[in-house]
Design a protein that fits this description.
The complex is a heterodimer of chains A (585) and B (370).
Chain A: H1 2-17, E1 39-45, E2 56-64, E3 71-78, E4 81-82, E5 86-87, E6 94-98, E7 103-112, E8 122-128, E9 135-143, E10 153-160, E11 164-166, E12 170-171, E13 176-184, E14 187-188, E15 191-197, E16 205-209, E17 214-219, E18 224-230, E19 238-242, E20 248-250, E21 255-262, E22 273-278, E23 281-287, E24 293-298, E25 306-311, E26 320-325, E27 334-338, E28 343-345, E29 350-353, E30 356-357, E31 362-376, E32 383-394, E33 405-407, E34 410-418, E35 421-428, E36 436-438, E37 443-450, E38 461-466, H2 468-472, E39 478-481, E40 487-492, E41 498-503, E42 512-513, H3 520-523, E43 526-529, E44 533-541, E45 550-555, E46 568-571, E47 577-583
Parallel strand pairs in A: 11-44, 12-44, 13-20, 21-27, 29-36, 37-43
Antiparallel strand pairs in A: 1-2, 2-6, 3-4, 3-7, 5-6, 7-8, 9-10, 9-45, 13-14, 13-17, 15-16, 15-18, 18-19, 21-24, 22-23, 22-25, 25-26, 26-32, 27-31, 28-33, 29-30, 31-32, 31-34, 34-35, 37-40, 38-39, 38-41, 41-42, 44-47, 45-46
Chain B: H1 2-17, E1 27-32, E2 48-55, E3 63-71, E4 86-88, E5 92-95, E6 109-117, E7 128-133, E8 140-146, E9 157-164, E10 174-180, E11 186-191, E12 204-213, E13 216-225, E14 231-240, E15 247-252, E16 262-264, E17 268-276, E18 280-281, E19 292-293, E20 295-302, E21 308-309, E22 316-319, E23 329-337, E24 362-369
Parallel strand pairs in B: 16-24, 18-19
Antiparallel strand pairs in B: 1-2, 2-5, 3-4, 3-6, 6-7, 8-9, 9-12, 10-13, 11-12, 13-14, 15-17, 17-22, 20-21, 20-23, 23-24
The chains are: A mainly beta (585), B mainly beta (370).
């Protein structure tokens, strides 16, 4: 028995030497909490409040990812001035305030959360509108900076009267970087391309296909109409359809359209330039040969409006013909006949100012002419067409005009003595040619620009857009910036007519158009105040706010060049926001 | 009986000699990783790392267990927080130093405890302990600048110092600004008011408006001192440049590439939408004392005729193809300039860049009248 006991203890002792470890308690690893980011916001009710006695706004605090009892701190500001409000709930997450008048307020909300969790301050702008506010249709055109890969947009917006008219965020979607080719069968074709997206035809993207027919364009991910104008005159310009994923744009020779250009005596007119447009799409351009024959290429469309443009060579003195009708281009040849008209040659006439010859002056003779000629398709009736005269020559160092042949009509003369210095007057060539052409100096126009509160402002702009003869002679816009005291001093062409607008790049007022036509006499010595303004505000964004995007507000219903003239323009700031002043609707 | 006892003892002893060798305990050491700056650990310090150095005589792998406590006196565990601020089973312990203990008193020392076991479970005896003194937290400062005029010499630059102190209130921290210009540089420094404050309520922000005159690198230094006199120095480099030529950034319609022409059949408004420049921009900001609108000069050349100025200074010109003959080739050119007298572009160049880098002062549309 004792032996057994002895062995047991020894074994136990030996067993104890074999590395059985002590038991140590180990603390469990704490699992750290995984907090989410606290998010805050402010919800206004109603969303578009209207001013009025008894009207009010309710603001509701929004807090996410912040457990526990929260306390709220509100600030409501009218500029730098606190605006009164009342707490509208037991825990302070709601405030209310009265809105008897039109106003723009900034609401700020801070929330304190147990445990010290950080929550950002929330901000919401509240725009209180006048009752029965007027609205006006504008267009907004936004062009993102290069490298942002966002095609432009051009879309209609409604601006509401009042101090401010916030718009919905302007979203610029990412574009498709399109690499394609223009081909005629298997042959690559250099061409000009104008892509017009279905959802906004005026947000065009232009591109040029090189000699390999290859081009790049950043396009919206939607179907487009594409105007393709091949460089080659053997291929007809056309509108083609582009769908996302399509890599080729196909063109071909189109349809040959032939005809002749003759004068009133039925003599061929060689050297006349001829071009058609079919529903606004150009044909190729051709020059008549010795037989007065031409051939252009186009894509005819049954029932389309066709404009036939014929420019006789300057040596003939004949006016330009512009014929517009639903010509059936299948009925060829097309006969263009320019009516006989007496031609005057102003060669030798002298440009003078106060009796002194003016060297190197540029003289334009312009004007509309009725009954220029007729256009007749093979099986059609003659269509009488009107036209115009726009001819320009430069006098020599002695002020003497070279050959300048024009119809013996009552027209307009426009003289540019030096760059930007114009005069205009009527010139009646029915009886003969004047020996001299008078070019009086421009007349001074002094005016004052004020803001809507009638305070003179520096840095505002006068734009005088030439009308009538000046426009036909390609006279440029007079663009002048007001100085101290809002004063503007500029010069208008004697005899000239202008469409005058005052605007302010500083957005202190809305653009004012001077009603009617302005001349020196009607504008000199006047004072003009900018229109009451409405500030149009919005955020331009893609995946994030887009800084330095060009923003223009344009006329929504205008036509022609007026459609492209911005009413207001600017850039988005680093926060992607813009603020532009338009005349209050 | 005696023989039996001796026999049993001998048997027992003979049996111990024939088992596996005795496993030995690992040795441990705690080694703090070197800290930047003054090398000490401060309240509020981030990413403090302690490395475990293990030595097992038997060559076995050693597993670790770390416990780190914030204390008043690391030698008296009763003055430490009841719960560790960090635990780990990694070879290194990494943690942030809390400025204050749970009691609210400043953290004066850290107590780091390291246990280790080998593969057979033999524990290092005794566990390693290291008491680490903790110094007052240094103010931490972040310097930022805003250059509304791209840092052009003679224009203001806003400097901002965003600062805090882990164991002190930001209000108790004083800020001293120093500016070190390049050779010959002069400047004015004016305190900014109404400086926006950080969202983090424990921090504050102050600002200065610097108007530097002189090109090159400017060194901005901020010394922040807390209520117990602990200071930190933060430096910031500012590059001041000369006024560069303006750049035609965005035009409409698109300018055709070399060799191509833009067919024009309807009246078109040719526009400069954006001119990029520090001081002479378009669109500009009216009323800004440093900004002026960029200057535009338009000219036109028809076929082989002479180039003629158009006499308008706005950012756009209207082009009516009806004023020309069908097929006419027209070069419509825009030149942009600023307030600085510079070399002009050669007349024959359709586009021109005085500085390179994609910044053009001239662009030319080649038009075909259609």
């Amino acid at each position: 028995m004792r032996r057994a006991i002895a062995i047991f203890f020894v074994l136990a002792a030996c067993g104890g030497a074999n590395g059985a470890g002590d038991d140590d308690d180990s603390d469990a690893m704490p699992t750290p909490d995984a907090p989410g980011a606290c998010e805050t916001g402010i919800l206004p009710f109603p969303l578009s409040p209207v001013a009025g006695a008894g009207n009010s706004v309710r603001l509701q605090a929004e807090v996410r990812n912040a457990p526990g009892v929260q306390t709220f701190q509100w600030n409501l500001m009218n500029g730098a001035t606190p605006y009164p409000f009342e707490i509208g709930s037991l825990d302070g997450d709601v405030i209310t305030f009265a809105i008897p008048t039109q106003i723009t307020l900034d609401a700020f909300m801070r929330v304190s959360v147990p445990g010290g969790l950080f929550c950002p301050e929330a901000h919401q702008q509240i725009v209180v509108r006048v009752p029965n506010a007027m609205q006006e249709d504008f267009r907004i055109r936004v062009v993102a900076p290069a490298g942002t890969n966002r095609p432009p947009i051009d879309e209609h917006v409604l601006v509401t009267s009042g101090l401010e008219s916030p718009l919905d965020d302007v979203q610029l979607d990412g574009g498709i970087d399109f690499h394609g080719t223009v081909t005629n069968g298997a042959s690559p074709i250099p061409a000009y391309l104008k892509f017009m997206p279905d959802t906004g035809k005026e947000a065009v993207v232009e591109a040029f296909a090189d000699s390999a027919g290859a081009f790049d364009a950043l396009l919206r991910n939607e179907p487009h109409d594409v105007l393709v104008i091949p460089v080659s005159s053997t291929l007809a310009p056309r509108i083609v359809r582009w769908m996302p994923g399509q890599t080729q744009l196909a063109v071909d020779a189109g349809t040959a359209i032939s005809g002749t250009v003759r004068d009133g005596a039925n003599a061929a007119i060689a050297g006349a330039k001829v071009q058609l447009t079919v529903n606004g799409v150009l044909s190729t351009l051709d020059t008549t040969d010795a037989a007065g024959a031409f051939t252009v290429r186009a894509v005819p469309i049954a029932g389309a409006t066709v404009v036939i443009d014929v420019v006789p060579p300057p040596s003939t003195g004949l006016p330009r013909l512009l014929a517009s009708s639903t010509f059936n281009l299948a009925q060829q040849p097309i006969a263009v006949k320019l009516n006989t008209v007496t031609i005057r040659d102003l060669a030798g006439s002298v440009v003078r100012r106060a009796g002194v010859a003016v060297p190197n002056a540029q003289v334009s003779i312009v004007g509309a002419v009725t009954g220029v000629g007729t256009v007749t398709t093979a099986a059609g009736s003659p269509v009488t067409s009107d036209g115009e005269v726009r001819v320009t020559v430069t006098a020599n160092a002695s002020g003497v005009l070279p050959a300048l042949k024009v119809p013996a009509k009552a027209l307009q003369q426009v003289v540019e003595v030096t760059a930007g210095e114009f005069s205009t007057a009527a010139i009646d060539l029915t009886a003969g040619v004047p020996a001299s052409i008078n070019a009086p100096a421009m007349g001074t126009v002094a005016t004052v620009i004020r803001d809507p509160s009638n305070t003179p402002i520096a840095g505002a702009v006068l734009d005088a857009i030439p009308l009538g003869a000046l426009a036909l002679a390609n006279a440029p816009v007079i663009h002048v910036v007001s100085g101290a005291g809002g004063t503007i001093s500029t010069s208008f062409a004697v005899g000239g007519q202008y469409d005058v607008r005052f605007s302010d790049p500083g957005h202190r007022g809305g653009r004012r158009k001077v009603p009617g036509v302005s001349t020196i006499a009607s504008l000199d010595g006047t004072t003009h105040s900018l229109e009451p303004r409405t500030l149009v505000k919005a955020l331009v964004k893609g995946a994030a706010p887009i800084a330095n995007a060009s923003v223009q507000l344009l006329c929504g219903s205008c036509t022609g060049l007026e459609r492209s003239r911005p009413i207001a323009e600017g850039l988005t700031g680093i926060d992607g926001k813009f603020s532009l002043a338009v005349p209050e609707p | 009986m005696r023989k039996l006892a001796i026999l049993g003892l001998s048997a027992a002893l003979a049996g111990c000699f024939y088992v596996d060798p005795i496993n030995q305990r690992p040795g441990l050491e705690i080694r703090p990783r070197e800290r930047p700056g003054d090398g000490f650990i401060h309240r509020g310090d981030k990413d403090v790392i302690l490395d475990a150095i293990a030595n097992d005589p038997d060559g076995q792998l050693v597993t670790f267990e770390w416990l780190v406590y914030a204390c008043d006196n690391g030698l008296d565990f009763a003055t430490c927080d009841p719960d560790p601020l960090s635990t780990s089973i990694e070879p290194s312990a990494e943690f942030d130093v809390p400025p204050f203990r749970v009691s609210g008193t400043p953290t004066m020392q850290l107590l780091a405890i390291l246990n280790g076991r080998d593969d057979f479970g033999a524990a290092a005896k005794p566990p390693q302990q290291l008491v680490i003194p903790v110094r007052d937290a240094l103010p931490d400062v972040r310097i930022d600048d805003q250059k509304p005029y791209d840092g052009v010499s003679g224009t203001p630059v806003q400097l901002f110092a965003d600062y805090g102190d882990a164991d002190d209130t930001a209000e108790n921290v004083t800020i001293v600004w120093e500016v070190f210009p390049p050779a010959g540089g002069t400047f004015t420094l004016t305190e900014l008011t109404n400086v926006p404050q950080p969202d983090d309520l424990s921090r504050r922000q102050v600002g200065q408006e610097l108007v530097p005159t002189g090109l090159g690198e400017w060194q901005i230094r901020v010394t922040a001192t807390d209520s117990v006199g602990e200071s930190s120095i933060t430096e910031h480099l500012l590059l001041v440049i000369g006024d560069e030529p303006p750049c035609l950034e965005e035009l409409a319609p698109v300018v055709p590439p070399s060799g191509s022409t833009l067919p024009v059949s309807d009246p078109v408004l040719f526009q400069v939408l954006v001119v990029r420049d520090a001081l002479d921009r378009f669109p500009t900001i009216v009323g800004d004392p440093f900004l002026l609108p960029a200057k535009f000069a338009w000219s036109m050349k028809v076929n082989t005729g002479a180039r003629e100025a158009l006499g308008t200074s706005g950012n756009s010109v209207a082009f009516d193809p009806a004023n020309f003959a069908l097929g006419d080739r027209v070069e419509l050119r825009i030149d942009v300039s600023d307030r600085v007298a510079r070399a002009t572009c050669p007349d024959g160049d359709a586009e021109c860049s005085l500085t390179g880098g994609g910044c053009f002062q001239r662009k030319t549309w080649i038009l075909e009248v259609r």
